[in-house]
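Figure S4 source data
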Amino acid sequence: MTTPSRMSRRTVLRGLGTAMALPLLDCMTPVVSAAVRGGPYGAAAAKTRMAFLFVPNGVNLDHWTPQKTGYDFDLPYVLQPLVRVKNDLLVLSGLTHDKGRANGDGPGDHARSASVFLTGAQPRKTSGAEIRSGVSVDQVAAQKIGSQTRFASLEIGCEEGRNAGNCDSGYSCAYSSNISWTSPTSPNAKEINPRLVFERLFAGDRQSDVAENQGRRDLYKKSILDFVTDDARRLQSRLGQADRAKLDEYLSGVREIERRVEMAEEQSPRKLVAGVEKPSGVPEEYAEHIRLMSDMLVLAFRGNLTRVATFMFANAGSNRSYRPIGVPDGHHDLSHHGGNPEKLDKIRQINRFHVAQLAYLLEKMKATPEGEGTLLDNSMIVYGSGLSDGNRHNNENLPVILAGGGSGTIAPGRHVRYPTETPMTNLFLSMLDRVGAPAAFVGDSTGRLPYLS
């Protein structure tokens, strides 16, 4: 009987400009540096992932906030889609983004809500080129641990944005369209086309490989898997039975996502939408778009392509309609509900729709074995909005969920209520510790956030 070979976590399947990362297999020995091993969270920090998911326009807090705190918390209407991952959640109440407030700058709350979401910094009010915010928490992590993976970070979204022009009361569109900032003056643009994200994840080491790969596959009508078949067969012969099954399941999953991307391209030819050319590969159905991008995120984390990601479900102030769930009104228009019960009900329907897409992502991560646990166990997923109530445009008591176990450093399954005005950036400092990228501060942070473990 042949003993399975040990292999590096960085092993990839290669073939004609393709580099396909692999999931964590039993035969892979994690490499942990002495610096990380001696850190406050030990070896866990070497593999923990972090992602930040943004939704616009606040929420209907009456149907979001659990009445009970602690482990025996309830799931209100908006959060009910998360019932199967309830024990993997921390619902965090009371967190605040003070720098999302006007603080003398007047209107523009939606733009501020996105720019402050991960920076905790007051954006400079301008619609010109002299934009300024802060370095976002994802990029603080990427600058410290990004060299350990193929991509320092991944930025994705479902609504096209702009980095110029006036999008909200004198604030540049750059503020409304981005939550990731590599520097105070440089927003990190997101990719909204699933095809381009897929190609980027599985391209070779050269930038030109992305277009070259797709062109070659289109010419010969082949799947990306066809280019790595020989390498995959050689690898299979070195694996034990459990790892062979795991690899087969992973490759089948990649092919299924590739098939769905192809279907989106067939069903959504390039056409004009509100005067803007729609990129091919973007599904017409919004829920499918979110789920395809969520699948890309899982692939990136599972293949250890990156440990840091951001995902904007929509831009700040988005006025998208939600006809498939019976809400034809624009989201932003509804957020100015003025206490109207009918509008408030429609908002909670939109909020629940978004949370259902979050549930899809978390359930997929929970169903992905990794080591002695799951991908979700080894991750920290923040979901929330930079506004509490879209009508009041307030920034205290933000709707925030932290999902995942942080590789054993977080005790989920609870609703934790913090004193109002607790900086949300304190959560970011605690997360950075857990991924091995400690920082002295992020934005307006005042210290680490307690009660996470």
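Figure S5 source data
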Amino acid sequence: MKRQDLVELALRNVRNSRLRNTLTTLGIAVGVASLVAMLSLGIGLQQFANSRLKSSGLFETIFVTSRQDWRNADRDEDKKDPKFEEAPALDDNARRAIGKIGNVVEVQPEIRAMAEIEFNGKPYASFIAGLPPSARDAEGFDKLQGNFFSAAEVDEVLVQQEFAKRLDPDPKNLIGKELTLRFARRETQMGENGGPGSLSITREQRTFRIVGVLEEEPFGGMRMISRARAFIPTATAEKMNLMQFSDTQQLVRAAPGTRVYSMLTVRTASSAKAEQVQNTIKQMGFGTYSFLDATKNMRRFFTVLDLFLGIFGSLALAVASLAIVNTLVMAVLERRREIGIMKALGASDIDVKKIFFAEAAAMGVVGGVLGVVLGWLIGRAINLGTNIYLARNNMPAETLWSVPVWLVLGAVGFSVLVSIAAGIYPAARAAKLDPVQALRYE
């Protein structure tokens, strides 16, 4: 039997039992729609999480700490390391060495300190933090009111919006005005004849000009410095010698005149190079952490989530396949005489099977396409409802679903495959009909 005749005969048979076949096709469509809607939600959530991390610049960021850090001294994994006390210090020499590693574009210290902010004669206690020039492209600065720092080292400050409202009900009015920072400045001095040094702390103040207001926390709120309320250039903060937690450790363990950092932030040329750079830093004897470590677990989580969503979505399609079996079995009973005539005229068992497989595939294609459209509409409705809820809670709109091309093609293909599988039994039953007995059937 020619392929064209096979397709024409299958479509004619589908049209003859229009109501029954339509209901069966709609059942397939509902099954495919549930599959597409669930998977599109899982894919959308994964893309949303990845985009937030990527826009924050954290995929290209590596956080470096020293194994000498006393905050880690009681950790079991460090106790097992016989070289814990001999680990290299995270000082200026280490900073320069890390900066020479290939694909490293920036090495900056994490600076965050307590300070008193005076504005219009009123004091406010708050944390201040240093921001490097590269932070301009990070998440949180796309909604910046005003401007970013004009230079790498300048007496300018950015204030977080909630804190800005404490200074002025309308934060925009703050731009261009000045505030005063009072902070603890630390100085280390060398001891006589190379003996133990000393640490002195003085109270100082410095005037800064407000150049911008941040509506969101920098870097998606995922870094220690993100939780500050006022931000100054990192280079300026270094020159101010703000009192840090690591300063006591510097006094006891560091060489005189050497600056020790509690943490260095390393930015790589791209996220693809981050793992290579991270391994190199580990070989230098430093502790490292990057969000690539976290995303490995996140990708594993979303893979399992997509698997379970796909399984539950496929259950509806499995139920629809039973309707296909029922429809085609009824078709065999109704068309016994027609099948008998075809076999009497020379049609083989394979030809008869092909007809029923073609009918099942036709319902699978139509049901798959309708299901994809219906699943897309369900996804849009869920996303619209979510954004309405976010808007009522003063949150920005987000896209939490996605229907990629591979999902569309995969859903239609899976629908056709399940439909053909459902047609195996009816097709086999039709092929086994005895032509003589079939022609006697009324």
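The chain has two domains: 3-54+298-440, 58-290. The longest strand covers residues 198-214.
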